[in-house]
Q: What sequence folds into this?
């Protein structure tokens, strides 16, 4: 190899490496939104505002015909408690259908952990729901074309076409899907598609007294919630899975996944 | 080529044709994919309409605003509410979805249980969440055995306004 070839090769490699880097570096969401007008629903959860009352879970179940007593739910609230002596606890009794009426942590299998109030370092609540991913693994694995992401960005299940095989329930990294005990099909959050298409907020957003849950059209840069997503330091869950979630969270810690 | 090749081949071809024919009649005509491509959005288009037509139960009266549509008939309950205290809680959070109340259902459930209040008022010392804003009580110490609403007015819980 002579010197000229070596320099040529070096330039090509550097140029090649620089292109994807720079395209990432100067990514401006507003510009992308301007060239793709339309509707794309996104969700924003502010974990600072959530007090864990569980009214969102109750409202979701009553609005969407999910039996209250069944141990499945489309949305749920998790409690994270970090103690000063270095332990972490997470629980979600019944998905927080009744909120968190007890200070003790539900460790599962009927065991509970009392935590002294003085020992609580940081503690907070995280409402969870389907992330309506842009590359949803759950719709990819459906063998019959019963679950899909529609043009407005909502992931739905076709109840008359679903065969109940459960692949999608296993494929979802967030555990957002479950088997519906009455309809005997896979079921999940629809972002209350019947409400948002009529201009109403989803039942959980409506029920939240503290404004911890919000919904927006992320392609409308005048929407105040969209502005929050663009300007606040929001995070997403399990970024490393490459699912590109459309539910954004304010105030996450590394343990919240 | 010999017969022993053609015979099984024709059987296989007939099978493929039969499957395609069955598929042609069985799969609804509106199956297709949308903006997100075949991989993520291959579906029956009519299903989107079906989801759109699900019944709305919670009326759009909660959220951060006062529950105006109930004022007409339940003026007393609505009037007692203040934004600082329980005014931010939608009536439907405690009384369930209004649907077409008062036509259907004619009345809404009234839950007088302690659990309803303990959702928010169990004392949790979580200073890193807005829970710290809500005054907390210990359910085992604070008048166990009696309903909260015997002493507190759920619509106007202001302590100064307590009857007793």
A:
């Amino acid at each position: 190899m002579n010197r000229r070839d070596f320099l040529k090769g070096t330039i090509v490699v550097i140029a090649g490496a620089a292109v994807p880097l720079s395209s990432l570096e100067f990514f401006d969401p507003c510009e992308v939104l301007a060239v793709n007008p339309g509707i794309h629903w996104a969700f924003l959860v502010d974990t600072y505002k959530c007090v864990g009352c569980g009214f969102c879970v109750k409202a979701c179940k009553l609005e969407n015909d999910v039996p209250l007593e069944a141990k499945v739910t489309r949305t749920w609230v998790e409690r994270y408690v970090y103690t000063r002596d270095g332990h972490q606890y997470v629980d979600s009794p019944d998905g927080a259908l009744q909120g968190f009426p007890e200070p003790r942590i539900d460790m599962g299998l009927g065991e509970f952990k009392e935590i002294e109030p003085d020992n609580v370092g940081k503690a907070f609540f995280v409402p969870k729901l389907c992330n309506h991913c842009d590359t949803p693994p759950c719709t990819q694995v459906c063998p019959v074309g019963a679950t899909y992401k529609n043009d407005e960005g909502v992931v739905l299940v076709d109840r008359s076409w679903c065969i109940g095989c459960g692949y999608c329930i296993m494929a979802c990294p967030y555990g957002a899907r479950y088997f519906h005990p009455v309809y005997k099909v896979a079921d999940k959050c629809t972002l209350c598609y019947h409400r948002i298409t009529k201009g109403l907020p989803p039942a959980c957003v409506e029920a939240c007294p503290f404004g911890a849950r919000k919904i927006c059209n992320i392609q409308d840069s005048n929407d105040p919630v969209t502005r929050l997503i663009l300007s606040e330091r929001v995070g997403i869950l399990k970024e490393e899975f490459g699912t590109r979630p459309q539910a954004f969270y304010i105030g996450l810690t590394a343990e919240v996944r | 080529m010999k017969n022993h090749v053609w015979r099984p081949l024709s059987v296989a071809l007939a099978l493929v044709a039969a499957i395609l024919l069955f598929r042609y009649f069985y799969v609804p005509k509106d199956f297709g994919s949308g903006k997100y491509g075949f991989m993520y959005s291959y579906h029956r288009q009519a299903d989107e309409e079906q989801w759109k037509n699900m019944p709305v139960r919670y009326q759009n009266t909660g959220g951060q605003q006062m529950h105006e549509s109930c004022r007409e008939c339940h003026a007393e309950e609505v009037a007692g509410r203040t934004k600082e205290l329980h005014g931010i809680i939608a009536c439907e959070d405690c009384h369930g979805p209004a649907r077409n109340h008062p036509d259907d259902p004619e009345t809404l459930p009234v839950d007088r249980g302690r659990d309803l209040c303990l959702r928010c008022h169990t004392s949790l010392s979580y200073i890193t969440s807005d829970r710290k804003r809500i005054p907390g009580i210990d359910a085992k110490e604070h008048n166990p055995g009696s309903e909260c609403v015997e002493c507190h007015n759920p619509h106007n819980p202001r302590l100064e306004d307590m009857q007793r």
